[in-house]
Amino acid sequence: MTTQFNAAAGPVARILDDIQALAAARALAASFTREASLRDRERQLPVHELEQFSRSGLWGISIPRAYGGAGVSHVTLAEVIATIAAADGSLGQIPQNHFYAVEILRVNGSEAQKRFYFERILAGERFGNALAELGTRTSQERRTRLSKDGDGFRINGRKFYATGALYAHRIPISVIDDDGVQQLAIVKRDAAGVSVIDDWSGFGQRTTGSGSVVLDNVWVTAEEVLPFQSAFERPTSLGPVAQLLHAAIDIGIARAALHDAAVFVRTRSRAWIDSKVERAIDDPLTVREFGDLAVRLAGAEALLELAGTVVDAAAWDPTVNSVAAASIAVAEARVLTTEISLAAGSKLFELAGTQATLAEHNLDRHWRNARTHTLHDPVRWKYHAVGNYYLNQKNPPRHGAI
User: Fold this and answer.
1) Where would I find the Acyl-CoA dehydrogenase/oxidase N-terminal domain in this sequence (predicted)?
2) Angle (nearest 5°) at CA 381 between 377 and 387
């Protein structure tokens, strides 16, 4: 099914600093959480919610202040994403590739490209993505071609896992040029030859729209193409920023699972007979398990905040050592954010009891979201990267997946 979404016109707030960004995220989260379960259960695409999200100004907060954005810290950016993801895991993930595109423009875009695209983002345009492909030898391989045609180029290929493309105004597409070099083409969502297909059927993150994008002889100008591969051939903060946002999504999912588990145990669960108490919240073993989850979540949040500060340093002064340190700090955070999001989503049922499995509560969405999202990059390789860094003084690879 090919779907076209046209964004409704409306004023976009201009967020000026970190404090305003966090306040806007909390206000939106309070609204988004109300029907998050319904949207997941019935796979209702969050078109209205994304309009609210865009007009809040939050999609422009990572744009540098020199270009009119708030230039928020990466600590703040991660907390904004975690706050939205706690309200709705899918809504927390949809802008991840938008912020990734902003970072690509920041580190690799020409001055003209930065001014052109940053202005449009601040006016409310959303960027999606069409990076990954199915059927390749590795997750990093690309077959979609960018072929020279007169003063511009033609794009042909097919993408999948295109989170955000369904709702986007522009779609950044990874392409291989005539010389075999990977570039990034920023294509209008409604350009001739672009088909966005709503065929995402994952059991989690159900409304991210992470389906297919088909590109049939799509024309782009030279101004719509910028270097991509070179952002990994030299030290930049691009990879750590992408991974930091994934960690933030996991934190949000974990927060939601722990919150809903606590509400259910307080209001519905029964104490185990051998506990000799009348209320589930007084069961000492249940209390102990909640304490364990809370400590693990706090530890993951602390590592996420620390990673944000290290990414800030790498973005400010990108060197081989600063970027490696940022990648490792984010990998450390992702180890714990992966584990706590999965643990909270699973332990919820053990602590809340059999009632919690009833479809009417839809509490399994937290585990489904965590299990789906944490598959982006295997955590076992993050352990390897961290161990190699400290034991063998080997920097992690620069490819965006560590």
Assistant:
1) 24-125
2) 145
- CB distance 170 to 128 below 8 Å: yes
Residue 141: predicted pLDDT: 86
Q: Work out whether the CA dihedral 132, 137, 141, 142 comes out positive or negative.
A: negative
The pLDDT value given to residue 402: 87
Residue 228, pLDDT > 70, answer yes
Tell me the backbone φ, ψ of residue 174, rounded to 5 degrees.
-80, 130
Going by the DSSP 8-state scheme, the letter that residue 208 receives in this structure is S
Q: Residue 9 has what pLDDT?
A: 57
Give the Cα separation of 327 and 246 in Å (integer). Answer: 13
Round to whole Å and give the CA distance between 301 and 258: 14
Quickly state the pLDDT bin for 5 (edges 50, 70, 90). Answer: very low
Residue 149 is inside which H or E element, if any?
strand 145-149
Give the tokens for residue 9.
Answer: 């016109």
Contact 46, 90 (CB under 8 A): yes
Cβ(184)–Cβ(227) under 8 Å? yes
Does the pLDDT value for residue 3 go beyond 50?
no
Helices 47-55 + 18-32 axis angle, to 10: 160
CATH fold label, 145-228: Butyryl-CoA Dehydrogenase, subunit A; domain 2 (2.40.110)
Question: For residues 232 and 84, what is the distance between their CA atoms, to the nearest angstrom?
Answer: 29
Residue partners of 378: CB distance under 8 A and separation at least 6: none
Within 10 A of 26 (CB to CB), how many other CB atoms are there?
Answer: 14
How do the domains of the chain map onto residue ranges?
A: 18-123, 145-228, 234-392
Write down the mean pLDDT value for the chain. Answer: 96
The CATH fold of domain 234-392:
Butyryl-CoA Dehydrogenase, subunit A; domain 3 (1.20.140)
Strand partners, 219: 154
CB 277 within 8 A of CB 271: yes
What 3-state class would DSSP assign to 225? strand
- pLDDT one-digit tens code per residue, 230-241: 999 999 999 999
- CATH number of the 18-123 domain: 1.10.540.10
Distance (Å, whole) CA 102 – CA 237: 12
